[in-house]
């Protein structure tokens, strides 16, 4: 579903991702884990097209989107839940979700969105900025989902969120996977969360993938070591 070959991403002269190649099939949840500054956000921003890549090919469902603007990539089926959520604090919950709907041409927020996130229905007339961190995270996921993505990217969705709500986010992501034909890619530092959702875990270090495990064979001690060095 998502295929990335020889991706290179730089900030000026500084090369953060040098030559990354990976595939994520349909219906897989992939977790990309790494410490701060290892390139997770840079990778996600380049996939969604906020950051230009210097080299490489990004394909969504066989379509080469490497030269596309972000909105065209979204139209082609990739959606992004950014780190820090970045919801619109002065828009209501409903209006926040509606900002994602232009792409999918939906007229009304579908019931399945409110079924996944009942709290968003309750709070639909509240300003996004008045929601808790966990509720804002749900809102950011809902806003991404109404674009009907084939590939959903979530950058550190547990950051700043309390443990009980982290469990809710894991449950919701697993439900989304059950309900839709979707590929989910999440960047994370919390292993217990990725163990609850991921089929495959990859460790990124200085822009390179240095370790990979299927969930059934995860070497948690090794991964914890990579995350704590
Ligand atoms: N705008 C920028 N200009 C220059 N260098 C940057 C910029 N943004 C990030 N970097 C550098 O790129 C590298 C990767 O950063 P990135 O934010 O992608 O890491 P990360 O794994 O997402 O970490 P975090 O969890 O802290 O967001 C770091 O060395 C960082 O200093």
From TrEMBL:
The UniProt entry, under SUPFAM superfamilies, shows: P-loop containing nucleoside triphosphate hydrolases
Q: Which domain of life is it from?
A: Bacteria
Q: Which UniProt keywords apply?
A: Amino-acid transport, ATP-binding, Nucleotide-binding, Transport
Molecular function per GO: ATP binding; ATP hydrolysis activity; branched-chain amino acid transmembrane transporter activity
Q: What GO biological process term is on the record, naming one?
A: L-amino acid transport
Q: Is the keyword Mitochondrion assigned to this protein?
A: no
Q: In this protein, which residues make up the domain named ABC transporter?
A: 2-227
Q: Where are the transmembrane segments?
A: none
NCBIfam families this protein is in? urea_trans_UrtE (TIGR03410)
Give the record's family classification: Belongs to the ABC transporter superfamily.
Protein's UniProt name: Amino acid/amide ABC transporter ATP-binding protein 2, HAAT family
**Organism for this UniProt entry:** Neptunomonas antarctica
């Amino acid at each position: 579903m998502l295929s990335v070959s020889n991706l290179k991403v730089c900030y000026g002269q500084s090369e953060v991702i040098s030559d990354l190649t990976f595939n994520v099939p349909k219906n897989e949840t992939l977790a990309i884990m790494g410490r701060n500054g290892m390139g997770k956000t840079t990778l996600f921003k380049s996939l969604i097209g906020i950051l230009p890549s210097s080299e490489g090919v990004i394909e969504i469902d066989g379509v080469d989107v490497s030269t596309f603007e972000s909105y065209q990539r979204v139209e082609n089926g990739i959606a992004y839940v950014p780190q820090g959520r970045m919801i619109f604090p002065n828009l209501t919950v409903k209006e926040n979700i509606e900002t994602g709907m232009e792409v999918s041409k939906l007229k009304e927020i579908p019931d399945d969105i409110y079924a996944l996130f009942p709290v968003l229905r309750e709070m639909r007339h509240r300003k996004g900025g008045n929601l808790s961190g966990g509720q804002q995270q749900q809102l950011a996921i809902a806003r991404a989902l109404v674009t009907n993505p084939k590939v959903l990217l979530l950058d550190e969705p547990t950051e700043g969120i309390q443990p009980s709500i982290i469990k809710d986010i894991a449950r919701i992501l697993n439900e989304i996977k059950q309900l839709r034909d979707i590929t989910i890619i999440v960047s994370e530092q919390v292993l217990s969360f990725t163990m609850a959702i991921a089929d495959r875990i990859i460790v990124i270090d200085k822009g390179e993938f240095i370790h990979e495990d299927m969930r059934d064979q995860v070497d948690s001690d090794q991964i914890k070591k990579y995350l704590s060095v």
